[in-house]
Here is the input.
Amino acid sequence: MQGGEPWTVDRFFEGDGTARNIYEAAERMASGIGPMTVRVSKSQVSFRRRRGFAYLWRPGMYVRSMVPVVLSLALPHEIGSPRFKETAHPAPGIWMHHLELLDSSQLDGEVEQWMRQAYEDAG
Here is the structure.
């Protein structure tokens, strides 16, 4: 594959069926909340309204990791759940919550609630 090819969902998840399955479940969840667009770059796949609200990335692209996908949610406040591997506060009014996903079953009702909050705030 040549470096100049555009990034697509297929290219981003190439060679990792588990990561692709997690993406597909997350995309179904996000599109079930409301209209959104998908943007793919070399480093992540983002779900967007007026701005991004959910981001999927593969930690194995950067560090040694057995985690296929991390879902990062941009929320207007911090959520104190032990499910999040890390929470960062990169800008005023934005808290990035990083959730390691080993399989699509982790995309449950609680995650959908958080994603809905992120979606509403991104409009």
Notes: The CA atoms of residues 72 and 98 lie 4 Å apart. Strands lie at 37-40, 45-48, 52-57, 69-75, 86-91, 94-101. The longest strand covers residues 94-101. The two ends are 36 Å apart (CA to CA).
